[in-house]
Design goal:
The two termini are 23 Å apart. This protein has a single domain, classed as Beta-lactamase (3-Layer(aba) Sandwich), CATH 3.40.710. The protein is globular, with a radius of gyration of 18 Å. A hairpin with a 3-residue loop joins strand 7 and strand 8. It has 265 residues and is of the alpha+beta class. Strands 2-1-9-8-7 form a 5-stranded antiparallel sheet, with helices on both faces. The protein has a two-stranded antiparallel sheet with strand order 3-4. The protein has a two-stranded antiparallel ribbon with strand order 5-6. The chain has 8 helices and 9 strands.
Length: 265
Amino acid sequence: MRILLSLAFALAATAASAFETPAPYALLVDASSGKVLFEKNPDKPMAPASTTKILTAEVIFSLLSSGKLSLDQSFPVSGHAATEGNAESGGSSMLTKVGERIKVEELLQGLLVDSGNDAAITLAEGVAKSESGFAGLMNAHARAIGMSHSHFTNPWGHAGNRVTCRDMVKLASYVIGTYPQYYKYFGMPSFTWQGVQQQNRNPLLAEGADGLKTGHLAASGFGIVASGLFGGHRLILVMNGLKSEGARAEEGRRLLEFGKSAVGG
Protein backbone atom coordinates (compact mmCIF):
# COMPACT_ATOMS: atom_id res chain seq x y z
CA MET A 1 0.00 0.00 0.00
CA ARG A 2 2.81 2.43 0.91
CA ILE A 3 4.48 1.69 -2.42
CA LEU A 4 1.24 2.42 -4.29
CA LEU A 5 0.69 5.68 -2.41
CA SER A 6 4.27 6.78 -3.01
CA LEU A 7 3.86 6.00 -6.69
CA ALA A 8 0.60 7.97 -6.85
CA PHE A 9 2.18 11.05 -5.26
CA ALA A 10 5.22 10.75 -7.53
CA LEU A 11 2.99 10.61 -10.61
CA ALA A 12 1.00 13.64 -9.39
CA ALA A 13 4.21 15.59 -8.80
CA THR A 14 5.48 14.68 -12.26
CA ALA A 15 2.21 15.78 -13.87
CA ALA A 16 2.31 19.11 -12.01
CA SER A 17 5.91 19.77 -13.05
CA ALA A 18 5.01 18.98 -16.66
CA PHE A 19 2.08 21.42 -16.75
CA GLU A 20 2.90 24.87 -18.11
CA THR A 21 0.97 28.13 -18.37
CA PRO A 22 1.83 31.54 -19.82
CA ALA A 23 0.26 33.17 -16.76
CA PRO A 24 3.07 34.89 -14.80
CA TYR A 25 1.30 34.09 -11.52
CA ALA A 26 -0.78 31.01 -10.74
CA LEU A 27 -1.73 28.85 -7.78
CA LEU A 28 -4.15 25.92 -7.82
CA VAL A 29 -5.04 24.31 -4.52
CA ASP A 30 -7.23 21.42 -3.42
CA ALA A 31 -8.71 23.24 -0.43
CA SER A 32 -10.32 20.02 0.78
CA SER A 33 -6.91 18.51 1.53
CA GLY A 34 -4.69 21.58 1.50
CA LYS A 35 -2.59 20.11 -1.29
CA VAL A 36 -0.99 22.47 -3.81
CA LEU A 37 -1.69 21.09 -7.30
CA PHE A 38 0.17 23.73 -9.30
CA GLU A 39 2.11 26.89 -8.51
CA LYS A 40 4.01 29.58 -10.37
CA ASN A 41 5.36 32.58 -8.45
CA PRO A 42 2.78 32.05 -5.67
CA ASP A 43 4.53 34.39 -3.23
CA LYS A 44 5.56 37.14 -5.65
CA PRO A 45 3.72 40.47 -5.11
CA MET A 46 1.19 41.42 -7.78
CA ALA A 47 -1.65 43.90 -8.31
CA PRO A 48 -5.04 42.25 -7.61
CA ALA A 49 -7.12 44.72 -9.65
CA SER A 50 -10.84 43.99 -9.15
CA THR A 51 -10.22 40.72 -7.30
CA THR A 52 -9.70 43.23 -4.46
CA LYS A 53 -13.50 43.27 -4.25
CA ILE A 54 -13.45 39.80 -2.68
CA LEU A 55 -11.97 41.38 0.45
CA THR A 56 -14.33 44.36 0.17
CA ALA A 57 -17.19 41.87 0.22
CA GLU A 58 -15.65 39.94 3.13
CA VAL A 59 -15.66 43.07 5.29
CA ILE A 60 -19.34 43.61 4.45
CA PHE A 61 -20.16 39.93 5.08
CA SER A 62 -18.52 40.21 8.50
CA LEU A 63 -20.61 43.25 9.42
CA LEU A 64 -23.76 41.48 8.23
CA SER A 65 -22.94 38.36 10.25
CA SER A 66 -22.33 40.38 13.41
CA GLY A 67 -25.60 42.30 13.03
CA LYS A 68 -23.84 45.65 12.59
CA LEU A 69 -25.25 45.91 9.08
CA SER A 70 -28.34 44.59 7.32
CA LEU A 71 -29.03 43.70 3.70
CA ASP A 72 -31.96 46.14 3.66
CA GLN A 73 -29.89 49.05 4.93
CA SER A 74 -29.17 51.62 2.21
CA PHE A 75 -26.28 53.96 1.45
CA PRO A 76 -26.22 57.11 -0.73
CA VAL A 77 -24.12 57.30 -3.89
CA SER A 78 -21.60 60.14 -3.72
CA GLY A 79 -20.30 62.11 -6.65
CA HIS A 80 -16.94 60.40 -6.22
CA ALA A 81 -18.52 56.93 -6.34
CA ALA A 82 -20.62 57.70 -9.39
CA THR A 83 -17.67 59.28 -11.22
CA GLU A 84 -15.27 56.38 -10.61
CA GLY A 85 -17.97 53.94 -11.61
CA ASN A 86 -18.99 55.81 -14.73
CA ALA A 87 -18.52 53.74 -17.88
CA GLU A 88 -17.02 56.80 -19.59
CA SER A 89 -14.13 56.72 -17.10
CA GLY A 90 -13.20 53.25 -18.34
CA GLY A 91 -14.07 51.56 -15.06
CA SER A 92 -16.56 48.82 -14.27
CA SER A 93 -19.92 50.16 -13.11
CA MET A 94 -23.31 49.06 -11.82
CA LEU A 95 -24.58 52.34 -13.33
CA THR A 96 -25.41 54.26 -10.18
CA LYS A 97 -26.45 57.91 -10.11
CA VAL A 98 -25.37 60.61 -7.67
CA GLY A 99 -27.71 60.93 -4.71
CA GLU A 100 -29.69 57.71 -5.09
CA ARG A 101 -29.83 55.39 -2.08
CA ILE A 102 -29.13 51.72 -2.73
CA LYS A 103 -29.62 48.73 -0.44
CA VAL A 104 -26.57 46.81 0.75
CA GLU A 105 -27.79 43.62 -0.94
CA GLU A 106 -28.09 45.41 -4.28
CA LEU A 107 -24.66 46.98 -3.83
CA LEU A 108 -23.19 43.54 -3.13
CA GLN A 109 -24.68 42.23 -6.35
CA GLY A 110 -23.39 45.24 -8.25
CA LEU A 111 -19.98 44.70 -6.64
CA LEU A 112 -19.62 40.99 -7.34
CA VAL A 113 -21.59 40.47 -10.57
CA ASP A 114 -21.07 43.80 -12.37
CA SER A 115 -17.68 44.42 -10.69
CA GLY A 116 -18.93 47.93 -10.00
CA ASN A 117 -16.31 50.37 -8.76
CA ASP A 118 -19.21 52.62 -7.82
CA ALA A 119 -20.68 49.85 -5.67
CA ALA A 120 -17.34 49.30 -3.90
CA ILE A 121 -16.89 52.99 -3.13
CA THR A 122 -20.50 53.42 -2.00
CA LEU A 123 -20.15 50.50 0.42
CA ALA A 124 -16.82 51.83 1.68
CA GLU A 125 -18.13 55.35 2.23
CA GLY A 126 -21.32 54.02 3.82
CA VAL A 127 -19.44 51.88 6.32
CA ALA A 128 -16.31 53.93 7.03
CA LYS A 129 -17.05 57.43 5.64
CA SER A 130 -14.14 57.21 3.18
CA GLU A 131 -12.14 54.83 1.00
CA SER A 132 -9.07 55.27 3.19
CA GLY A 133 -11.05 54.50 6.32
CA PHE A 134 -12.44 51.36 4.73
CA ALA A 135 -8.95 50.36 3.56
CA GLY A 136 -7.96 50.33 7.22
CA LEU A 137 -10.70 47.78 7.87
CA MET A 138 -9.58 45.76 4.86
CA ASN A 139 -6.00 45.57 6.12
CA ALA A 140 -7.14 44.55 9.59
CA HIS A 141 -9.31 41.79 8.14
CA ALA A 142 -6.51 40.68 5.81
CA ARG A 143 -4.14 40.30 8.77
CA ALA A 144 -6.75 38.33 10.72
CA ILE A 145 -7.25 35.97 7.76
CA GLY A 146 -3.49 35.42 7.50
CA MET A 147 -2.81 37.46 4.37
CA SER A 148 0.62 38.45 5.64
CA HIS A 149 2.00 39.65 2.30
CA SER A 150 -0.90 41.85 1.17
CA HIS A 151 -1.73 45.52 1.55
CA PHE A 152 -4.76 47.53 0.44
CA THR A 153 -5.27 51.25 -0.13
CA ASN A 154 -8.74 51.17 -1.74
CA PRO A 155 -11.81 48.89 -1.99
CA TRP A 156 -12.13 48.57 -5.77
CA GLY A 157 -8.72 47.55 -7.13
CA HIS A 158 -7.18 50.84 -8.19
CA ALA A 159 -3.37 51.05 -8.27
CA GLY A 160 -1.79 50.71 -4.83
CA ASN A 161 -3.11 47.34 -3.71
CA ARG A 162 -0.64 44.44 -3.50
CA VAL A 163 -1.27 40.73 -2.87
CA THR A 164 0.20 37.29 -3.56
CA CYS A 165 -1.51 34.25 -5.05
CA ARG A 166 -1.11 32.41 -1.76
CA ASP A 167 -2.78 35.20 0.18
CA MET A 168 -5.68 35.28 -2.30
CA VAL A 169 -6.20 31.53 -1.88
CA LYS A 170 -6.38 32.12 1.88
CA LEU A 171 -8.97 34.85 1.32
CA ALA A 172 -11.11 32.76 -1.03
CA SER A 173 -10.99 29.76 1.30
CA TYR A 174 -11.96 31.92 4.27
CA VAL A 175 -14.89 33.55 2.48
CA ILE A 176 -16.24 30.23 1.21
CA GLY A 177 -15.96 28.55 4.61
CA THR A 178 -17.12 31.42 6.80
CA TYR A 179 -19.97 32.96 4.79
CA PRO A 180 -21.85 30.21 2.92
CA GLN A 181 -25.03 32.29 3.16
CA TYR A 182 -23.43 35.14 1.20
CA TYR A 183 -21.05 33.24 -1.10
CA LYS A 184 -23.98 32.79 -3.52
CA TYR A 185 -23.59 36.38 -4.75
CA PHE A 186 -20.30 35.50 -6.44
CA GLY A 187 -21.99 32.91 -8.64
CA MET A 188 -25.04 34.88 -9.77
CA PRO A 189 -25.17 34.69 -13.59
CA SER A 190 -26.42 38.26 -14.00
CA PHE A 191 -27.70 41.35 -12.19
CA THR A 192 -30.13 44.00 -13.39
CA TRP A 193 -30.00 47.57 -12.11
CA GLN A 194 -31.98 50.52 -13.50
CA GLY A 195 -33.30 48.26 -16.25
CA VAL A 196 -29.84 47.27 -17.49
CA GLN A 197 -28.81 43.62 -17.18
CA GLN A 198 -25.11 42.82 -16.87
CA GLN A 199 -23.65 39.33 -17.07
CA ASN A 200 -21.24 37.90 -14.51
CA ARG A 201 -17.69 38.42 -15.80
CA ASN A 202 -16.35 35.12 -14.46
CA PRO A 203 -15.84 32.83 -17.52
CA LEU A 204 -15.19 29.79 -15.34
CA LEU A 205 -18.78 29.65 -14.12
CA ALA A 206 -19.45 27.92 -17.45
CA GLU A 207 -16.74 25.37 -16.56
CA GLY A 208 -18.26 24.30 -13.25
CA ALA A 209 -16.87 26.99 -10.95
CA ASP A 210 -19.37 28.39 -8.44
CA GLY A 211 -17.92 31.79 -7.70
CA LEU A 212 -15.40 34.52 -6.91
CA LYS A 213 -14.00 37.25 -9.14
CA THR A 214 -12.13 38.51 -12.19
CA GLY A 215 -9.83 41.51 -12.35
CA HIS A 216 -7.99 43.66 -14.85
CA LEU A 217 -5.62 46.61 -14.84
CA ALA A 218 -3.46 47.72 -17.73
CA ALA A 219 -0.40 47.42 -15.50
CA SER A 220 -1.21 43.93 -14.19
CA GLY A 221 -3.08 42.21 -17.03
CA PHE A 222 -6.09 39.95 -16.69
CA GLY A 223 -6.56 37.83 -13.58
CA ILE A 224 -9.08 35.67 -11.77
CA VAL A 225 -9.82 34.02 -8.45
CA ALA A 226 -12.18 31.08 -8.96
CA SER A 227 -13.45 28.06 -7.07
CA GLY A 228 -15.67 25.05 -7.54
CA LEU A 229 -16.48 21.59 -6.23
CA PHE A 230 -15.21 18.75 -8.41
CA GLY A 231 -15.47 15.11 -7.38
CA GLY A 232 -16.05 16.17 -3.79
CA HIS A 233 -12.94 18.36 -3.77
CA ARG A 234 -13.04 22.15 -3.40
CA LEU A 235 -10.53 23.61 -5.88
CA ILE A 236 -9.35 27.22 -5.60
CA LEU A 237 -7.51 28.87 -8.48
CA VAL A 238 -5.69 32.20 -8.48
CA MET A 239 -4.17 33.39 -11.74
CA ASN A 240 -2.94 36.79 -12.91
CA GLY A 241 -1.04 38.60 -15.63
CA LEU A 242 -2.70 37.25 -18.77
CA LYS A 243 -2.72 39.44 -21.87
CA SER A 244 -6.42 39.22 -22.80
CA GLU A 245 -9.86 38.14 -21.61
CA GLY A 246 -9.65 35.18 -23.99
CA ALA A 247 -6.30 34.05 -22.59
CA ARG A 248 -7.65 34.35 -19.04
CA ALA A 249 -10.66 32.19 -19.90
CA GLU A 250 -8.59 29.57 -21.75
CA GLU A 251 -5.84 29.26 -19.14
CA GLY A 252 -8.38 29.21 -16.35
CA ARG A 253 -10.20 26.38 -18.09
CA ARG A 254 -6.94 24.45 -18.65
CA LEU A 255 -5.90 24.82 -15.02
CA LEU A 256 -9.31 23.72 -13.76
CA GLU A 257 -9.22 20.70 -16.07
CA PHE A 258 -5.76 19.87 -14.76
CA GLY A 259 -7.02 20.19 -11.19
CA LYS A 260 -10.06 18.03 -11.85
CA SER A 261 -7.85 15.32 -13.30
CA ALA A 262 -5.53 15.52 -10.29
CA VAL A 263 -8.36 15.00 -7.78
CA GLY A 264 -10.32 12.55 -9.91
CA GLY A 265 -13.19 14.99 -10.50
